[in-house]
Amino acid sequence: MYEFLKKKYGQNFLIDKNIIRKICNLISAKHLNIIEIGPGDGRLTDYILKYQPQQLNLIEIDEDLIPILNSKFFKNDKIKIINEDILNYPLIEKVDLIISNLPYNISSQILAKICLMRDPPASLILMFQKEFAERLLNKNLNSLNSLVGCFYDIKNNFNISKNCFRPIPKIDSTVLQFTRKKKFLLNNNELNHFIEFKRNLFSHKRKTLKKLLKNYNLDPAKFDLGKRVEDISLNQLIEIFREVNL
Ligand code: SAM
User: Fold this and answer.
1) Do residues 40 and 60 make contact, with C-beta atoms less than 8 angstroms apart?
2) Cβ atoms within 10 Å of 166's Cβ, excluding its own
3) What is the pTM of this model?
4) Which of 125, 158, 180 is the last residue of a domain?
5) Cβ 53 under 6 angstroms from ligand 1
6) Whose CA is nearest to atom 23 of ligand 1?
């Protein structure tokens, strides 16, 4: 039944209805403006609809799945089916919630894209491969959580066994819930420089900050430069960034 699914689009469909219900139970309110990334054949969508969204945009790259979605949802005028690559889709509409069983191969690009939205959604409910979720939740800083942590608080909800998917993937998944911070740690105009700055630091993460930032005249009394970037807090990283980005 699932042999038509495409590996190149990360198509591992969730077959366990209890788990689908459990994910959708995380939706906090009715009548939200929602985007679902990668609806597949609409199995999660069916349950999202129980929350009577104000608007539900489905963004699905695979044109072969569009007729299935059309025939399932053509009567629902709250649903818009968009056959596009999420990475090319201009995320400019006002959205309260993005929900998705994400295509695992582009999870990190999608997260970065959401963080770079002019007005990121108040809430995200996203499913990742377990190891990817662990990187996001890691107490130590990494290239991924140092960006997302500027915008969202992340809560670990539950793991999902790989046996709940078809075809069965290699590893289990984890559902995370993201709540937008009241005040972002970075201003919009700092974002691109910060991304470049942290990319440089994390690509040499074994070196101390002292070595990496030797060209800047940083005050050793103010910053603990003997540490590696993964051993400082996000607030400290942003302080250092602001000091060198003057
Ligand atoms: N929502 C279904 C479920 O929960 O079973 C399917 C989830 S499956 C893991 C990922 C879905 O994302 C697939 O339907 C796939 O075609 C779609 N997808 C993959 N890459 C995409 C992209 N770049 N833009 C939009 N959708 C994409």
Assistant:
1) yes
2) 16
3) 0.96
4) 180
5) no
6) 85
